[in-house]
Structure formats: structure tokens, C-alpha cells
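Q: Here's a chain of 82 amino acids. Please give me its 3D structure as C-alpha cells.
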Amino acid sequence: MGTYMDVHRGFQGITPEQLSEAHQADLAIEKEEGVHFERAWADPESGTIYCLSTGPSAEAVQRVHERTGHAADEIHEVPLSV
């Protein structure tokens, strides 16, 4: 099981409610891909969203995001943490 940080761009002006809705959409189907989305952060000014997840692969993380309508622009495996 890997840990992944993904980046989404183009969400200028996103509200807390919209971020929560997108995160909840991922949570609703994450188990189908063996993924768990831990947390999401957003910067409404730059339009950047970051998501932290665990799962079997970056491809599995992306499949969840694609199915919920917000594919990631980048997904980075994070092999070390403290």
C-alpha cells in the first residue's frame, strides 16, 4: 500500500462546501479501487487542491478521481514520512 499526494489545478474560487462535496464523492467509491482518501486541502486563490491518500497505485487513485469528475493533474508517491 502506497501513500500519494495529488494536485488538482483550475479550481479558483472553490468554497469549503465544494471541497467537501468533492472529497465526499471520492470517499463514496474509494473502496472499489482499494483507495482511502485521508484529507484534502485547497487554495481558492490559486485554484489548487491537494489530496492525501493511500492505495495500491497512483493509477487507482486517479481512477477514483476520474470517476468523480475531477482527475488529478499530478500524483506523487510519497515513500517517506515522519
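Q: Can you summarize the key feature?
A: The longest strand covers residues 36-43.
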